[in-house]
Design goal:
Layout: H1 2-17, H2 22-35, H3 48-52, H4 58-61, E1 78-89, E2 92-97, E3 108-109, E4 112-114, E5 129-142, E6 145-156, E7 167-171, H5 172-175, H6 186-194, E8 208-211, E9 214-217
Length: 224
C-alpha cells in the first residue's frame, strides 16, 4: 500500500510539472472525479479521457471501471473507556497538557485516566485528585477508537497545582484558546460545553461541594 501511494504521488507530480497552469489542472481533475469518474457509477461515455483514447484509462480498457478503486478495508473499532475529572475553582478548570509525541500531541485536556488498555491515556491520574460521583457520560470518536468517558466532579488533593507537570487552572472562557493557540482536545471541548455550570442556579445541582472527604450535592443557592 505504501509503494502504491508513492507511485500515485509521483504520477501526480509528473502531471503537474507537465503543464503551465497546474492550478487549472488540479481543479479539472477534482471535478472529473466528483462529477464523472465516480467510484460507484462512472460516466465513461461522458469522460474526456475516454474520448481522447480508450487506452488512456486502464480501468476502462480492462473493463473494470465499476470495480475500481477497491474499497479499503475498514479497521475494526476499538472500545475505550475513560474517567475524566472535572475540577473547577472560582470559574476556572484544571487542564493537563498531553505529551509532545503521539496522538493529540501538545493539546490540553481535562485530567483523564483510561479504564481499558489501549495506552492512549495513562491508567492513573497524574495529579492527586479527590474524585466524586459521576456527572454523566460523553461519547467521542478518534479514528477507529470509540470512546465513552464518564465525567466526575473532583477537586485537587494536597498538591499545589504549580508543582504538577504541565497542569494549570484556566478560566473557562479562555480554555479554547489556551496555551498560545495550542487549544483543547475535541473531547475536552465537548465536556466543557455539556457540563458548563456558570451562574445558572438550576445547573448548580450538578456541582459537588466537598466537606473533608465527604461528598454532597450542592442545592441551588448554596455557595461552593
Amino acid at each position: 500500500m505504501a509503494s502504491l501511494a508513492a507511485k500515485l504521488w509521483a504520477d501526480a507530480e509528473a502531471l503537474v510539472r507537465g503543464t503551465k497552469r497546474p492550478g487549472d489542472l488540479n481543479q479539472a481533475i477534482m471535478e472529473l472525479g466528483a462529477l464523472v469518474c465516480t467510484p460507484r457509477s462512472p460516466s465513461c461515455d461522458a469522460c474526456p479521457v475516454s474520448a481522447a483514447g480508450a487506452d488512456l484509462c486502464a480501468a476502462r480498457a480492462s473493463g473494470r471501471e465499476r470495480e475500481l478503486p477497491t474499497p479499503a478495508k475498514k479497521r475494526a473499532s476499538i472500545d475505550v473507556r475513560l474517567e475524566v475529572a472535572l475540577v473547577e475553582r472560582d470559574g476556572e478548570v484544571l487542564l493537563e497538557r498531553r505529551p509532545d509525541g503521539g496522538r493529540m500531541a501538545g493539546l490540553w485536556e481535562l485530567p483523564t485516566r483510561e479504564l481499558t488498555g489501549t495506552g492512549l491515556w495513562p491508567a492513573e491520574h497524574k495529579s492527586l485528585l479527590v474524585v466524586g460521583e459521576p456527572l454523566g457520560e460523553v461519547a467521542h470518536a478518534i479514528t477507529h477508537h470509540r470512546i465513552r468517558a464518564r465525567v466526575r466532579a473532583a477537586r485537587l488533593g494536597p498538591e499545589r497545582v504549580d508543582a504538577l507537570p504541565d497542569s494549570r487552572f484556566v478560566p473557562r472562557e479562555a480554555a479554547a484558546g489556551f496555551a498560545s493557540g495550542a487549544g483543547l482536545t475535541g473531547m475536552a471541548r465537548k465536556i466543557l460545553a455539556r457540563f458548563a455550570v456558570g451562574d445558572d442556579p438550576a445547573l448548580r445541582l450538578r456541582r459537588f461541594a466537598f466537606d473533608g472527604s465527604a461528598v454532597r450535592i450542592a442545592p441551588p443557592g448554596d455557595p461552593i
